[in-house]
Amino acid sequence: MSPRWAGWLRLAVRLGLSPRAFWELSVAEWRALAGGAGDAPPGRDELARLMTAHPDEP
Q: What is the pLDDT of residues 17-32, one digit of tens each?
């Protein structure tokens, strides 16, 4: 996990979200909850790497 995602996950836990609930949020939901906190969203390469590392279950 990149430091950026780790920071976002820590913030989500402080907001009272479980890790599972965090990963189930849409980007729009997360941005609304985070209030613009954190860095820019992940780039295409980082997103592709995450999708490869954590594919959707069938």
A: 887 887 888 888 877 7
Tally the C-alpha atoms within 13 A of residue 14's C-alpha that lie toward its C-beta.
Answer: 9
Nearest-5° Cα angle at 18, 21 to 57 = 45
Contact 4, 38 (CB under 8 A): yes
Residue pair 9/19 in contact (Cβ under 8 Å)? The answer is: yes
pTM across the whole model: 0.41
Sign of CA dihedral 35, 37, 40, 45: negative
**pLDDT > 90 fraction of the chain, expressed in percent and rounded:** 0
